Amino acid sequence: MILYNVVNTQMPPIRQQQVSDWVHRVAALHQRRVGDISFIFVDDEEILRVNREYIGHDYYTDHIGFDYSQGSSISGDIYIGVDTVRTNSQKYSRPYPEELHRVIIHGVLHLCGFKDKTPRERARMQKAEDEALAIMNYEF
Known about the structure:
By secondary structure, the protein is an alpha/beta fold. It has 5 helices and 4 strands. A 4-stranded mixed β-sheet has the order 1-2-4-3.
């Protein structure tokens, strides 16, 4: 089951059923099935609080994921800092909906086992994000 929640912000402009279907398709491409995933859209102050409390980092970020996956079933809580996503969309000259969907699928790809600590891992992650965005066939 995929759930969508908000804390201190409004629900961003996404089509929840379309996003849920997309997440299932992307997971299947990576030989995973979807268990329980919660997307929690938050403002900058809440993402900073979560980052400080649970990760020990003192900065804003566009997402934080908590992975509860077991075997081939992906599950987790994915916090998305919508204010930072908006800032990054301007910084990278991307439409906000595109950047938002990129961050959503980035979190899902982490649950699928993708990492992004090294340059090689980041390149692999970006390629998987681009492929996932193409699958969605969403007009930004």
